[in-house]
Amino acid sequence: MLIWGCNNKEAIKVEKGVSLELAQWRKANISMVNYKLEFRVPEAYDQQIQALEELTFNLKEVDQDLQLDFKEDASKLKGLIVNGSSVPILFEQEHLILPKEGLKEGFNKVEVNFFAGESSLNRKEEFLYTLFVPDRARTAFPCFDQPNLKATFELKLDLPNSWNAVANAPVGTVQIKDGRKQLEYQKSDLISTYLFSFVAGKFKSITETIGGRTMTMLHRETDENKVARNKDDVFKLHAASIQWLEGYTGIKYPFKKFDFALIPSFQYGGMEHVGAIQYQANSLFLDEDPSQNRLLSRASLIAHETAHMWFGNLVTMDWFNDVWTKEVFANFMAAKMVNPSFPEINHDLNFLKHYSSAYSVDRTEGANPIRQELPNLNEAGQMYGAIIYNKAPIMMKQLEFLIGEEVFRAGLQEYLKTYGMSNATWPNLIEILDKKSEADLKTWSEVWVNSPGRPDFNFAVADGTGTLSQTDRNGDKVWPQSFRMKLYNNGRKDRKELQVVSGGDPYTVALSNSWTDFDVLHNSNGIGYGLFPPAYNMIEKRWESLSDLEKGSLLLNAYENLIEPANHGQGNQYSPGQYLEVLQWIIEREQNQLNLNRAIGQITSIYWNLLDEAQRTALAPSLEKQLYGLMLKADDAAIKKMFFNAFSGVTITELNKQHLFDIWVGTSHAQIEGLKLSENDKIGLASNLAVKMPDKAALITNKQYHGIQNPDAKRRFAFIMPALSDTAAVRDAFFESLKDEQNRETESWVLSALNYLHHPLRKTESVKYIKPSLELLQGIQVTGDIFFPKRWLDANLGGHSSDEAIATVEDFLKENPNYNKQLKMKIQQSADFGKRANAILSRDKKITPR
Ligand SMILES: [Zn+2]
C-alpha cells in the first residue's frame, strides 16, 4: 500500500549527538533563529558560570516535540520558559525536549536559566576561550547545533573588571559595576553555531588601523621585545589577506568586524570564528631569526584563517561531511595569496609539503577519501586530517589546471554569490563548474574526492615509444592529472621536457634511435600525485643542474620509494644507509632552505626509524660532526638554527651530549657565535637533554623550571616534567594520569609530553603504553578536540616499529572486530610507518649475517 502525501510523520528519534535525520528535520521546519546569551564569568576558574538564554525562532508546523541540543548534565538546567509559560525540564540523550504543546506555528520564544557547560570553554587560571567546532556549541548552551541553521547572536558578558574580551560582533556598551565589567555586544551577523565564540581574560590588547580597517589583537606575551618584533607584521599580513580576498572573490569583507586573539597552547594553529579569530600564540609571535619556513607558515596560517571568512563563514558547508570544502579553499587561497608577500620564496616548492602529508595517509591501509559519510555530528571530528588539509589542495590544483584559472575563479565567484550567508554542498559547486567547463567533472570528482588512495606510475619503453601508465593497488581507478616530465639523454646533450596528461589512456612519447640510454625525472614540477619510479642515481649525478623544484620533487619521491618495503631487494633500490649517505652529501651543498629542511628531516627520520641500533651508533659520531660543522659554517641565522636543531636532535655520543649541556647551561666556552636560543629553544633543549642524560634529568628539569620567565611556558613545563623523569615509575604514573580526562585538557601539552615519553631512545620502555593508549582512544574521541585522536595516536604509535609494537596494534584490532570504522582507519594510518620500518629493518637483518 502506498500512502502518498500522508501527514502522519514519524517522530524524530531522540538519540545522542545530532543525527543527520534530526538536522534535516530541523532545517526544514525552523528558521529566523536568534540567540540572546548572557554569561557571568567568575574570576576563580573553579566557580560555575551562570548563564541566561533567550532563543527565538520560527517554526513551520507543530507536529512533534522539538529537540534542543545540550550535551551536559541535566542538573545544569535551572529553569525553562516556553512562549511565556514555565515548563518542567525534560532532558533525554543530550537533548532538552520542548513538548509540542508549548510550541506554536510561527514565532516561538524559549528562555533557559542554566549553568554553562564547560567542556569546550577552555577555562584556565586567567582566561577562557570557546572552541565549538564541530559540534561543541551544544556543550556550552542549549542550541540547534548544526551548520545549516545559521543564527544571529546577541551576547552579554559579565567579567572580572581586569579582563579583556573579544567576540563575533562589535561591542555595543561597556559598564563597570561593583568591580565587574559588563560587555554588551551588538547583534552578530548570520553565523553557524560552530563559529559563535568569545575569548575573555587577562589579555593585553593592541589596536591598529591599516588601509582603513581597524583591528584589535589580544595576547598574553610577557616578552615585550617579542611583541614589538612581531606585531606590525601580524597586522599587515591580515590586512593584505583581506585585500587580496576582496579582489579575488569580488566580495567586500562580509562581516561587521575583524579581530583576533593569540592564545598560549591553543589546540590548533588557528580557528576562524567570525570577526574573532583564535591563534596559537607561538605561530604568530615568532622567536628571533625565524626561518623562511616559519615566516611562510605564519603568513599562510593568517591567510588561511582570513580566507575562511568567505570560504566557510560566508558560505558554509551544509553538513560537516563537507567540512573539507572550507579547508581546501582556505588552503588553496592561502597558497595563492602568500606569494606577493614572499617573492623570494619558491612557492611551487613549498607546495610539495602537501604531498608528503597527504601520502602519509594515502599510502596506508586506513586511507580515507576526501568526502566521507557522516551520520551523526558527534563523529564530525573524525572527518579532519591530512587528507582534507593536504590532499584536497592538490586535487583543487589539478581541478584548476583542468578547467583553467579564469573559469575556476568565475565558478567560485558564482558559488559565493549564490550561497552567501547560507550553506552549500560540494555537488553544488561541481554543478556550477561543470556548466562552465567541457570536462566531465562528476566522474573526475568520483575518483579524486570520493575515493582514497594514490596511483603507482610506471614508465616503460618499447619499440621507440615510452609509455607512462598508472595502476591502482586497490582496484582499477585512474586519477586524471597533469604534470611535467623530463628525459635526459645520456649519450648526447639532449633532453625532452614534456607536459604529461595522465588518465585512462596511458601517456606516450616517441623516442628516436638516439634515445637508448637516458634518465627520467618523472614528475619534474612536482604536481603529479602518486608514487613514481625511484631515480636515486640521478640525485648526485644531476643535482647541480636541477631547479630547486626538481630537487624537491626528486627528494620527495625518493623517500616515498625508500619506505616501500616491497621495493627493497629490487635492483634500483637504495638501502636506508645508502640513501642517508646521499642526503649527507646534499646538505653539504644545498642552499635552498626548503630543500635543506626536507633533506634534514629525512635524515632525522631515517636515523631514528630505519637504522638499527648498531648502525645508528656507528653513524652518530660522523653525522653529529657534520651537522655541527655545517652549523658553525652557516652565515644565515635561520640555517644555523636548522643545523643546530638537527644536531641536538640526533646527538647520542657522550662528548656531544656534554657539549649540548654546556650550551644549555650557558658556559662561556660553549657559546656559538650567531646562534640565538630563545626561552622556548632552551626549554626544548633541556627536555631533549633530560631524556638523553638520565642521570642529570632531575637537575636539568629543575633548573630549567626555575629559570622560565613566561608564566604560561612555566605551567606547560611543569606539566611535561614527569615525562622527562629518569624514573620509570614517575613516567608510568604520568601516563596513568592521562586516563583522567581532566589531565588531558591542554592537548598540546599532552602531545609534547607523549613525544618525550616515547622518545626513540626509550622505545623499549614505552612500548607498554601502546595498548592502554588504544584503549583510551574512544574516550579521547568523545572528550578531545578535532585533531586530538589522530595526534594522540601518532604520538603513541608513530615511532614504534618493534615486533611487539606491531603485534600490540594488530591484536587490539583483532580483539575489537566491531570497532568504530573511522577510528580504526586512524589507528591504521598512525601505525603504518612503524610497520614499514619493521618490514625494512627485519629484511635488512635477514640479509646482513654473511
Ligand atoms: Zn581551516
Automatic annotation (TrEMBL):
One of its GO terms (cellular component) is cytoplasm. The keyword Cell cycle does not apply. One of its GO terms (biological process) is proteolysis. It catalyses: Release of an N-terminal amino acid, Xaa-|-Yaa- from a peptide, amide or arylamide. Xaa is preferably Ala, but may be most amino acids including Pro (slow action). When a terminal hydrophobic residue is followed by a prolyl residue, the two may be released as an intact Xaa-Pro dipeptide. Its cofactor is Zn(2+). Keywords: Aminopeptidase, Hydrolase, Metal-binding, Metalloprotease, Protease, Zinc. It comes from the Bacteria. Residues 238-448 form the Peptidase M1 membrane alanine aminopeptidase domain. It is an enzyme of class 3 (hydrolase). Its EC number is 3.4.11.2. Residues 122-195 form the Aminopeptidase N-like N-terminal domain. CDD domains: M1_APN. The keyword Nucleotide-binding does not apply. One of its GO terms (molecular function) is peptide binding. Belongs to the peptidase M1 family. This is Aminopeptidase N. It comes from Roseivirga pacifica. The lineage of its organism: Bacteria, Pseudomonadati, Bacteroidota, Cytophagia, Cytophagales.
